[in-house]
Amino acid sequence: MSRTQVTLRGGDTEQFEEIRSEIADARGGNEPSNAETLRMLMQAWSSRRVPV
């Protein structure tokens, strides 16, 4: 099993925390872990319909 560490700074950190907060609000206050948030973002990216 491989492992990747991600470090965010500045505006990226703020945006990530805003996304986590929105997810928590949608779950009635149940905040996802950093790893879970990242998995959700990767899943959303993988299922996009618009090519980059």
Structural summary, described in words:
With 52 residues, this protein is mainly α. The chain has a domain of 36 residues. The chain is 56% helix and 0% strand. The chain has 2 helices and no strands. The longest helix is centred in the middle third of the chain and has 16 residues. The protein starts with 10 loop residues before the first helix and ends in a 6-residue tail after the last helix. The model has no long low-confidence stretch (mean pLDDT 93).
Radius of gyration: 12 Å
How far is the N terminus from the C terminus? 29 Å
Number of helices: 2
Q: Structural class, please?
A: mainly alpha
Overall pLDDT level: 93
The SSE string, one letter per element, is HH
What is the beta-strand fraction? Answer: under 5%
Largest sheet: none
Helix content: 55-70%
Number of strands: 0
Gross geometry: globular
Q: Unreliable runs, pLDDT <50, ≥5 residues?
A: none
